[in-house]
Structures are given as structure tokens and as C-alpha cells.
Amino acid sequence: MTKNLLKIDYEKYSLANGLQVILYPDQSFPLVAVNIWYRVGSANEKPGKTGFAHLFEHMMFQGSQNIPKEGHFRYIQEAGGNLNGSTSIDRTNYYETVPANYFELPLWLESDRMGFMLGGLTQEKLDNQKDVVMNERRQTYENQPYGLAWEKLFSNLFSPDHPYSWPTIGWMEDIAKFELDDVKNFFRTYYSPNNASLVVGGNFEVSRMKDKIEKYFGGISRSNSVPDLVAPGQNIFETKKIIMEDNVQLPRIYLAWHTEKAFSQNDAAIDILSDILTSGKNSRLQKLLVFEKQIVQDISSFQYSAKLAGSFIIVSTAKPGVEPETIKNEIENEIKKLIAGGITEDEMIRAKNSLKSSYIYSLQKLDLIVDHLNHYNFFLNEPDSFVFDLLRYENVTREQVIEAAKKYLLNAHVELNVIPKNSARQKK
Amino acid sequence: MIDRSTAPLPEKLTIFNLPEIKELELANGIKLFFVRKEKLPIVFTQVLLSAGSKFDPGMKKGVGYLTSLLIDEGAGEYDSLALNGEFEKLGSVSSVKSNHDSLSMTLLSMKENFDRSLELLSKIILSPWFDEKDFAREKKKVIDRILQLKDEPSFIASSAFDKQIFCDTFYSSPEIGYENSVRDISNGDIKNFYKNNITSTNAKLIVVGNLTENEVIDRFNKYLGEWKFSTRSNMVFEMPKRNSTKIYFVHKENSAQSEIRVGHISKKRNAEDYIPTRIMNTILGGQFSSRINLNLREQKGFTYGAGSSFQYYKEVGFFEVSTAVNIENTGAAIIEIIKELTGIRKNILPEEIDLAKSYLIKQFPSRFETYSQVAKNIEQLLVYDLSTGELKDYIQKIEAATQNEICSSALENIFPDELVVVAVGDRTKISGQLKSLNGKDAVELDLSGNILD
């Protein structure tokens, strides 16, 4: 039954200019969701120019040839919809959900900035959004406890020439330096129909939707081929330990290993491994460290897999008076125990059943479904991969999870300890 | 070439039918609000209890919150881990949350596992363990969490603001409690809180799912038929007063930004002018393209975002402007915020009203998309004792609100001379800026929002 529900009825085609279109009609609710992915993210940046993909995303909301500043927000608000964008290491997306009778509006808005964004560009808008983004960086990272840990971790896990080594928001000094020419060049290089995919889902008539998409996007000209991303080869990697002071009360430990990229052979097995280690009260590390020994306040883990590479991360906050070293030893012992002693059938069932129902629950929201279609299309070139994805997990065996742990979690890694300010000095 | 210069017009409105809310009753009298939703084979259940932190006994702030953490740590024949394992095997998600007014248990399950999931939930309601070991562990976790909250500027700002606007009433302290008050809590306090508050008298049930009315009633009668009644004396709430504007700050060394809160006490949710007030706030700060955000973010670049809201507890409402700005602009941002509060009282343009109304009316159907969203709408009715007519007449009431009513709602609900202003940031960088606002030294508060001598 689950598999019938997850079978998504869709149609995929391309316009003459190379724009990929994916239509997912679903008449169950009077909404239409539009979701565009551009195949560009912070991984396409260069050292010294970090954070630009994200700043550019902000500029896309500053108007274009026919849309005034803040126009996107105003039009969608008037229609009773919602909208936003997001930037990750691999891609940038823009989305709107509107009442079904307004389906044409987001097509007009999105096509105007895809084709004619530079027509609305001014120095004043750029200066304003640089200020906004610098405040975003302050609010989301610098002024948050442990907020600077992630960029510290990844800039140590990846070599400086690897595009996953800098944060998506960018380094502050880079954000401050961007100029109008950067915006123009970036737009011309990456923002073209042949570097994007458009998903429209919801309550509409397919043939009419096709006509409207052709009307708004068909006339936008394609660009030269988009430069390919090349990841530098993996350097010899040795275990590193970094200690960082922060305005925090409790120490936190981060452990990071290199693993595999998204949808590669062991990707799903490592996800399940993560669940078995830290998801829920019964997971091994929560049970041992939060429940029994009570030496950590929290512990979590995840397989962070993307287009070029993947990594496995464990994060845990120490209870007052507990040393990160103690937690690290416990984690390492538990990983060794899992590798040597195996995994129970019960653990596999808990992990897989929770995953299975979470797929069904995710079908409640149209904007999540259309984003998923773009996600699958991006990685697998096949939007309707819900069933394939679920089967990836259902087919994982206990042996595969152990093999994956053995293959990756015994290797060199980065250890980051974030400790309360002045605590290092006090001890000496 | 197509003409791109004007926005395409909308087509004929797609029909939206408000989900039908059935008011049912279990054999023992508990009210159950049911919406049949058939899109997916899933069921969302919420047990809404009038059992929030406002029922914390005396000075023991944090009892209600700690009860919400402990109630699903072992129940019936299952200890804490076993109970959690049972839910995981079903792929069901159960959670307990509490706020000042209510304690809520929610359950999301596949239809095929609903019966068993509800049976497990009923064990949590009817026979929680409150084992000493679990109590000690969760209490320590709360105390350590309170320690961690000292690092979070947004929490510090909000709790200092709450403390000042709510004075000594029960909404003034954070649900989680204070380090000292939590240390004083015993497992006996938790058991008493459970006995007095987690009773069928205080409960209402919300079910949204792919079931028939009979199926719902049968299952709930089967599992919650034995739930005990109770009596409880009413809480007395004395409405705090607004005072003339006062500026406070909390020192946070080397902070990269200032967290700012500006606002005051306001009317209850069931006030006559709720709808015009909501329209007015949409214009002022309830939207991306509202006055406050466009000013502070899109014109000045002071912040990543700024907004205002009217928020409601059962006994009182409050108005709050919230933002985080780079530290050099702390004073300038507060000046702009107060300028906007003064401005909305003077003039609201018809086109602003049209835009706000259009948003609120057309966005309404999307509030019913997911199972939990439907339940959320019902929860709001129950918390504030509103009838289902509140949802049925919503669009019509928005349409009917006049410019006069909307302008009056600003005069009657926003008081720029009676504000509590709180900034959390580095003293050395913000105290001068704050002093220049009114010529007086701002009052320093500690991390819990108490005035420092």
C-alpha cells in the first residue's frame, strides 16, 4: 500500500531552451506550488569570493526588468501565497505556493528574473542586501552559541581548495567585497534555463499549464554551457583535533568522517547506521550516554551527503563537569562494539518503520512534494523516485550497516571541541 | 514577444470547502472534535489539556513543564525505553508539549496502526510511572537546559520582556522555570500536578483522519472510558497595567548583535476588535512587506528580519516587535520601531488595507492543508473558547472591516508611550545608544529578567 501511495503521477519534458519541466497534477487541494532549482550553489564559488551564491539569491528578490524591489513579496502576499528561496552547497532554489487560481503569477515572477534579472539591478540594492546578509550571518551564526562550529568543522574536514570547505553564507570579509560586476557575471554564467529545472505541482490542468510555461519561459534564451564542478582529489587525511572557545556554558564535541556522496552505494546504509546510533531514546548512544551514564545533555548524528562528497557527523553536548575526551572514548567504544557485535533485528525494524511512515507523512504538504521531485531529478535524473528511495532503505541489511561503519568510522577524522571561554586558561 | 509589463490576472476562484468539524462526545462526557480527512491513510490525534505552567504550584515554577517531559517516561507495563520502542515499531510519532495554558499530547500514525497507537497513548494518560530514576534524570536535564539558555540571546530577550510586561502574574516566568525553582521540585510535586490537572475534566480531544465517526468514538470509548474526573479551583488572573515607556538591557559580552523586543500588554483574543487589529498588524509588521520589515531590513539594512505580532494567552494578549540588529544600530533601530508604532496610529492607506485583506482572505484555505494544520485551527478555538463560527465567518469578517475600524484598532491597541523596550547586547556598545533615546540610563536586568541593583 505504501508503494502505491508513493507512486507519483508526473510528466517531465524540456523546453527548446533546455529548461527541464516537471508537472505533478494533484487535484486534492486548491493550491499550486512552483519550485525552481538552479544547478549552482556555494560549491561553484572560489576562495576569496565565498557566500556569493547565497547573496545572489537575495538579489533575486530585489526585482528584475518588470518587477519592482520587494515586488515578489508584494504580489505573492496579495495572492495569499507564500514564497522563499534557499541556497545550499549544490543548488539554489526558489519557490511559491499560491491559491490554484493564481498559478500564472509565479510563472510570470520567476520567468522575469530568470530572463531579465539584470534589468532591475542597482548599486543601492546590492549595498542594502550585503548589509542584510551580513546581519543574517551575525544572527544565524556569530551571535548563536556554537554558531561558528560548523564552518570550523568543514574547513578542516575538506582541504582549502575543496568547494565544500567554506560555509554557504560565506566569510564576512568576502561578503563585504562583492561588486555589481560579480552579480552580472554570476547571473550570465549560471542563471539560464538550461541550468534549471521547474516543478509545478497541484490543482491545474496539464495542457493549459504547458501553454503558460511555454509562454513565460519559452522565449528566454539559453546560455553557453555551464562550467562543470570538479572536486579536487582526496588528499592524504590525518586525524585532527581542534579546540575552539565560545560564549557557551557547556562543552560540545563534534566528530566528522569522510563518507560517500548522495545516492552512492553505502549512502542509505550510513543513514540507517546514524538512526541506530542516535535516533530516539532507544538508539545506542542516546541510551548509553543520555539515559544510563547521563554524561551528555544531547547527542545526534547524520550522514551529510551531497553531490561531490559525503560526511558523517556526530555532535554531543557534555553535561557540566564532563570532558569531551570522555564522550569521545564512549562513542569510539560503542562504534567498535557495533562492528564486532552486530545489530539486532529489532534495531533494524525500528529504524525502517520510522522511515517508512515518515515518507507517507511527508505527502501531506504540496510544497514538500514538489521540492522532493526537484531533489530526485537533480541527483537521479528521475523525479518520481520516492519508491526507489524507500526501497534503498528497505533493502539495507544488518551486514551492510556494519560494513559501512567498518569502512568509514574507523578512519581518520576531525574532532572539534567547543569549550567555554577562558576554561582552557583556568585549567593551566 | 509577450508583454511582461503587468502581472497576469487570477482566474476564477477554485472552490474551497471548509472542513466540517463534528462535535462528538465520549460516553464519559469528554468532548471530541473530529474532522474526516481522507487524502492519506493517516490519523492525527491531539489531547488538549487545560494543564499548562500557569497551574504550577506556588513558587515551584517548572512543575508543569517537567510533568510534560516525564509523563511518557514509562506507562502501563512498559518502562521508558520499551514504551518509546513500541511507538517506533509502529512508525507512530507521539509527543508531549506544554505552554503557559495547556499541555498537549499529539499522535501521528498510519491508519492501520491507529488502534494500537491510541492504546499506547491511553497508557501514558491513565497510568504513567513517574519513576524516581526517570524523575532525577529529566530534572537534571532541565537544570542543565536552563544553564544552556543563558547562551541564547533570543531566549534571554523574550523572557526579560515577558517578565517586565507581565509583572508578577503567572505569565511572567518561562515555562521551563528557573534553576532554583526546579531544584526545589520533588517527584511528589509531579505526581500531584498529574493528579490535579491531567484529568478528563480538563481534556478535549481533536482527531483529524481517515476514519468514520463511529470508528473514532468506539476507539476512544474503549481506551479512555476510565479516565477520572476532578475538580480544581479557578486561577485568578489580575490584569497587569501598562506603564510609561521604560528601556531595559541585558549585558551579553562581545555579542555580535542586539536582540530587541518592544511592546506591551494588550487585549484578550476574544476582544471585539480582533479582526481589525489583525489587519492593522499585517500592515505594521505581520508580513515581509510590512512597514517595520521594509524599513529596518530593505531600507536600512539593520537586520535580517523584523516583525510585530499580537500574541494571545487565555487570559491576556500582548503586542511585541521582535528583531536582531547589528550592535552599532541598536539605538537607531529602536527609534525606527517607535516611529512605525507612532505612524500606524496616524495614517493607514486604503491600498495597504486592500493588500492586507487580500492576503488574509486568500491565504485562509492553505491553513487547512495538512492534518496537523486542521487540528491547529480547532485547538485555537478550544483554547480561547471560540465557536466554530469563528472559522466559518472569518473571511466575511475580514471583508467587512472598515478603514475606520482598522485605524481605530491602532489607536486602541498600540501605545508608543507605554512600551517595554529590551535590548540584549554588549553593555559597552549599547548603553550610550540607549541613553541617547530618552536621556536616561537604561535599567540593567540579569539573565532572568530581574532588575539589577
Topology diagram in text:
The complex is a heterodimer of chains A (428) and B (453).
Chain A: H1 2-6, E1 11-14, E2 20-25, E3 31-38, H2 52-59, H3 71-78, E4 82-87, E5 92-99, H4 104-116, H5 123-142, H6 149-157, H7 172-177, H8 180-190, E6 196-202, H9 206-217, E7 240-246, E8 252-258, H10 267-278, H11 284-292, E9 296-305, E10 310-318, H12 324-341, H13 345-361, H14 366-380, H15 386-394, H16 398-408, E11 414-420, H17 423-427
Parallel strand pairs in A: 2-6, 7-11
Antiparallel strand pairs in A: 1-2, 3-5, 3-6, 4-5, 8-10, 8-11, 9-10
Helix pairs in contact in A: 2-8, 4-9, 10-16, 12-16, 13-15
Chain B: E1 22-25, E2 31-36, E3 42-49, H1 63-70, H2 80-90, E4 93-98, E5 103-110, H3 114-126, H4 132-149, H5 153-166, H6 179-183, H7 187-197, E6 203-209, H8 213-224, E7 246-251, E8 257-266, H9 274-284, H10 291-299, E9 303-312, E10 317-326, H11 330-346, H12 350-363, H13 371-383, H14 389-392, H15 394-400, H16 403-413, E11 420-425, H17 427-438, E12 443-445
State the main characteristics.
heterodimer, A: about 425 residues, alpha+beta, six-stranded mixed sheet, five-stranded mixed sheet, B: about 450 residues, 17 helices, about 20% strand
Write up what this structure looks like.
The complex is a heterodimer of chains A (about 425) and B (about 450). With about 425 residues, chain A is an alpha+beta fold. Chain A has helices at about 1-5, 50-60, 70-80, 105-115, 125-140, 150-155, 170-175, 180-190, 205-215, 265-280, 285-290, 325-340, 345-360, 365-380, 385-395, 400-410, 425; strands at about 10-15, 20-25, 30-40, 80-85, 90-100, 195-200, 240-245, 250-260, 295-305, 310-320, 415-420. Chain A has a six-stranded mixed beta sheet, with helices on both faces. In chain A, helix 2 packs across helix 8 (about 180-190) and helix 4 (about 105-115) runs parallel beside helix 9. The model of chain A has no long low-confidence stretch (mean pLDDT about 95). In chain B, helix 11 packs parallel to helix 17. A six-stranded mixed beta sheet of chain B has the order 1-2-6-3-5-4, sandwiched between helices. Chain B has helices at about 65-70, 80-90, 115-125, 130-150, 155-165, 180-185, 185-195, 215-225, 275-285, 290-300, 330-345, 350-365, 370-385, 390, 395-400, 405-415, 425-440, and strands spanning about 20-25, 30-35, 40-50, 95-100, 105-110, 205-210, 245-250, 255-265, 305-310, 315-325, 420-425, 445. Helices cover about 40% and strands about 20% of the residues of chain B. The model of chain B has no long low-confidence stretch (mean pLDDT about 95). In chain B, a hairpin with a 4-residue loop joins strand 9 and strand 10 (about 315-325). Chain B is an alpha+beta fold and about 450 residues long. The longest helix of chain B is centred in the first third of the chain and has 18 residues, at about 130-150. At the A-B interface, helix 3, helix 4, helix 5 and helix 13 of A face helix 2, strand 5, helix 4, helix 10 and strand 10 of B.
